Amino acid sequence: MDITIILLNIVDSWLNILILTITNLQIIWITYPTYITWISMEYFVEKEGIHYSHALANSIIFSWVSIDWLRELYETSNIYDLPKLFIALGFLSLSIFILISAAKRKKIAKLLGKTGVFAYFQIFLTPFMYNLSSFNINNIISIIAFFPIIYLIVYLIDKYLPSFIDEEIEQDDNNYDINNNYQDYNQYNYSNNYGQNYNYQNYNRYYNNAYNNQYGNYNYYNNYQYYYRNKNRR
């Protein structure tokens, strides 16, 4: 078979699945929230890198899609469809693994917990789980083949789009508040230390005056006694 025909079949299969995820009313209540989560997390949260908290949140969000797949298989009596059951349980197990790894702060959680990896495959596998698309090798190859292409497109868009401006303003405001609090703290400490030093100087001044007065009285008493003794001798 000509390679061009094979590539066209792969593109056609992928486009058909994409249209189903956007237009079919039976699954859009799953695919639309997943699309929204993917876009918002990529642009607003994971733009500067993924953290353990993000991976943990992603694992919880996408485990719900796997649970819904299992619900659909059970209600449609396809629970014994081994390929679909294996995919649903596999994604659910992976979600639980990422959740535990993120809680233990293991680096693999950041690698597997990125939103794009989960979102892409769960969106494009949902039509299979709902029996809206045939589970054949051509469709599976099309999903796998387009994953690096979509991932690269999302990466380039995320790279060249500007950062979320509200986040920068909020960060500047927080830095401004921290600096103001630091200056107020230093001024407060300086005022307290200055007040303590001022009180200490006043205390020394008072003590010295008292000492000088007492010492002056003592010298006056000694002079008086000396004068009185000399007068009696005369």
| Poorly predicted tracts of residues | 167-173, 215-221
Biggest sheet layout: none
How many separate structural domains? 2
Over all CA atoms, what is the radius of gyration?
Answer: 39 Å
String of helices and strands = HHHHHHHH
Mean pLDDT over all positions:
76
Number of helices: 8
Helix content: over 70%
SS-derived structural category: mainly alpha
- End-to-end Cα distance, whole Å, is 148 Å
Number of E strands: 0
**Which range does the strand content fall in?**
under 5%
> Which overall shape is indicated by the principal axes computed on the Cα atoms?
globular
Textual characterization of the structure:
The protein has helices spanning 3-23, 28-45, 52-75, 82-103, 107-112, 115-129, 137-160, 165-233. It has 234 residues and is mainly α. The chain is 85% helix and 0% strand. α3 packs antiparallel against α4 (82-103).
Briefly characterize the structure.
The protein has 234 residues and is an all-alpha fold. It has helices at 3-23, 28-45, 52-75, 82-103, 107-112, 115-129, 137-160, 165-233.
Strand-helix topology:
Layout lengths: L2 H21 L4 H18 L6 H24 L6 H22 L3 H6 L2 H15 L7 H24 L4 H69 L1
Helix pairs in contact: 1-6, 1-7, 2-6, 3-4, 3-6
Keywords: Membrane, Transmembrane, Transmembrane helix
Primary descriptors:
8 helices, single chain, globular, 234 residues, 2 domains, mainly alpha
